[in-house]
Design a protein that fits this description.
The chain is 0% helix and 31% strand. The chain is mainly beta.
Length: 70
Amino acid sequence: ISCSLVGSEMCKETDPLLKSTRLQQPDLHLKSSSPAIGTGLIFQGYVRGMFDIDGDKRCDNHRINIGADQ
């Protein structure tokens, strides 16, 4: 469950659709159908670096994903 801003609601429980949450070898990347893709808020000064931990662009069209990868 992740917490995200949706409309005027402060927090809404939503499954972020992670690739795998197995305890042995979790894969915390988002599935391509994840509702967390492109829904993060960008606050000037809080986004460090142009690329995430995998070398992918952190922001795309002024949108950022919500998740551990960012």
